[in-house]
Amino acid sequence: MPESPTRTVDEHLAEILELVSPPPAATLPLAACLGLTLRADLTARLPAPPFTNSSMDGFAVRAADVAGASAGRPVELPVADDQPAGPRGASVLAPGTAIRIMTGAPLPEGADAVVPVELTDQPRGSVPLPPAVRVLEPVVVGASVRHRGEGVAVGAPVMPAGTRLGAAALAAAAAVGYGELPVARRPRLAVVSTGDELAAPGEALGGGTIPDSNLTMLVALATEWGADVPVAERVGDDPGTLRAVLARAAEAADLVVTCGGISAGAYEVVRQALESPRVRFVQVAMQPGKPQGLGTLAASHGDVPVLALPGNPVSSFVGFRVLVRPALAVLAGRDPHAETATVPVRAAEAWRSPAGRRQYAPVRLEPPERPGEPFLARPTHRLGSASHLVGSLHLAHALAVVPAEVTQVEAGQAMAAIPLPPWSPELPVQVAPHPR
Amino acid sequence: MPESPTRTVDEHLAEILELVSPPPAATLPLAACLGLTLRADLTARLPAPPFTNSSMDGFAVRAADVAGASAGRPVELPVADDQPAGPRGASVLAPGTAIRIMTGAPLPEGADAVVPVELTDQPRGSVPLPPAVRVLEPVVVGASVRHRGEGVAVGAPVMPAGTRLGAAALAAAAAVGYGELPVARRPRLAVVSTGDELAAPGEALGGGTIPDSNLTMLVALATEWGADVPVAERVGDDPGTLRAVLARAAEAADLVVTCGGISAGAYEVVRQALESPRVRFVQVAMQPGKPQGLGTLAASHGDVPVLALPGNPVSSFVGFRVLVRPALAVLAGRDPHAETATVPVRAAEAWRSPAGRRQYAPVRLEPPERPGEPFLARPTHRLGSASHLVGSLHLAHALAVVPAEVTQVEAGQAMAAIPLPPWSPELPVQVAPHPR
Known about the structure:
Two copies of one chain form a homodimer.
Chain A: H1 9-19, E1 26-29, E2 37-38, E3 42-43, E4 53-54, E5 58-61, E6 75-83, E7 98-101, E8 113-116, E9 132-135, E10 145-146, E11 157-159, H2 167-175, E12 180-184, E13 189-194, E14 198-199, E15 210-211, H3 213-225, E16 232-235, H4 239-252, E17 255-259, H5 269-274, E18 279-283, E19 286-287, E20 291-299, E21 302-309, H6 313-331, E22 343-347, E23 351-352, E24 358-366, E25 375-379, E26 398-402, E27 408-409, E28 414-419, E29 429-431
Parallel strand pairs in A: 6-7, 13-16, 13-17, 14-15, 17-21, 19-24, 22-25
Antiparallel strand pairs in A: 1-12, 2-12, 3-11, 4-10, 5-7, 5-8, 6-9, 18-20, 20-21, 22-28, 23-27, 24-25, 24-26, 26-28
Helix pairs in contact in A: 1-6, 3-6
């Protein structure tokens, strides 16, 4: 009898998420916040712009003084001062005069408009301050003026807690007065790949050895996601050695992931090293990736969650995407369920899925026959989702999700798929606001 | 008269791309290749899997020996040996016997199938080698066997030059025998933000000073893209100081980007420091971002291209996306035009666009009224694409591209938009193969 799954993917994920909790917020300088999650609602400390200023190079005036200007009958005003951008602050404009002003410079007190240099008799560029300027067109009150706070008023909400801080968000935070932000620190994930059969990538192979693609892959997946990887080790089938490596991993990390050594065989080093009241090995109703382990490791700073993934590379890949990333999201202060958000697709061809297990099939996406219909999903390899086919995994655009009760996917069948970022440049995307 | 644009965006970009060229390929270990571009076609050095092996924990047999097995009439075979995964290599199976075998272990010579442990009288897990096994079901030839090279044959193409090396691609390279890869090194981008009016983010402001959001933003944009940023400096309006900083920047970088100091004013520090036969300042038919500069700086390792962006934050943002990223792509060995690939959208509301200039309007994307139609694009701020509105730029999902000849965008109008990755978790996507 095949061993029956003991739990659904959702039940397993729920138990994983109980093991992890977000760390307290840390305050970091903006330059260290890229990719991190904001841990408090941000409101504007400064208005944007912080003072009323000119949006053009030109001459600050009172609009009333140039109301009658035309090319044929220009209005000549004495140029009383020069107002560069910079820390000097605003000049004062007397009626009937002009002040030369640069883009971004504070609007002089008494001025209510700026005449761009192009609407005067003056040349553009780096020239001495002229004694007078002839204005060739009238301007309305407020012309070429950016008012204090017109972009963002003081106290206005700028971004909510939970925002992932990309470049534009960091710029916005700077513009409204922040030099540092309360964030969740970058999660630290330790990765340990196990098995006597593993050789380092590129190493000459003996009789029964294979290149270890898992360690490279899991470290890269964690890095792509935005985690730090303080420990990345390959260990053979000796439980004592593995226990020592895991103890070091737990000291250095917020989450430990192992790979391999958890199935039904006689030499399952992760089971042998970890099976205890703290760590359980279970059968999850998913394919690939049925055997899974979860629990905690003791460390001097407290219990550290450990997830044990199976060793087949595609199983590891799917396990990272479906189980590890949600745990990292919690550690990063983000919504774990957003990590497995799906898009609608249709099957491009028929394929099989095992009874009673949710299948995650690596698929290519192809354009639909009619524009606007869902993309077509085709398994990346003629052999389907067999879990050892790491050699074609990089071709996948998404993981098609086949429900547990479906054993035969039919061509044209509607289904959900988890897209696999990061996007390569040859994969432009259609963006949709999150349906949740 | 407003100064007329001297060139289209496409003409300007073409001239920029003539300034940059991809570096020679470097060979780096897999762990250093994440995010880099492969510079040669990769073919399999090893077959995947590298030897014929078991996909299950169980017993290697000759299928013919268990052809008549059933639960009622099991076939009993003596267990002659134990075949763990690992470097020992394959055993030899005598007819009429079984060899216990673990997942991934080499199939013994003489065996042609594996009976999973679940189809025998033996328990799963870590137990002593039994003297004999009773097989409860027949298996076909090839059952639970993964054949050498069935995933990838030796010499088969695995991925082409130009592939961006994500986690799965690195795993595939490892699996087919590579420990290092020929790649384009990570481009080095120096960023210099200019202006007497700039204060560091979070610093108290004087009368005419504003927080410098550009330096933070451009460094973050470069980092998000995958460039290194060896120099990131804020400089005031002194041309001599700026020249010294730029000389250092050129020594450390493959590309230098400045920000601010290039428009029509009297105090334009970047123009003053750089205007020469090597560097030109031009008017590009785009909004925001009309003033632009381009040229080269002399460095001891040769000429280094420099791009001068305008200082308004949204202008800088758009300039980075539309002009700097394509140059970085060339430096990284990738297709520069993929950086500005667009998706179809429709305008959610009407807005204006300047005559004779291509507009890049930061927009939110909203779901269409009917599923399958293009997403609806709505400017992120009630004030439209005004270039100083950095406080709302992080809300944008995309830059809507309004053609130069359009002065009025109508609600419902079809247009293209450049999506703005990296995607936040609340932005699931629909993926399409690249149309090019």
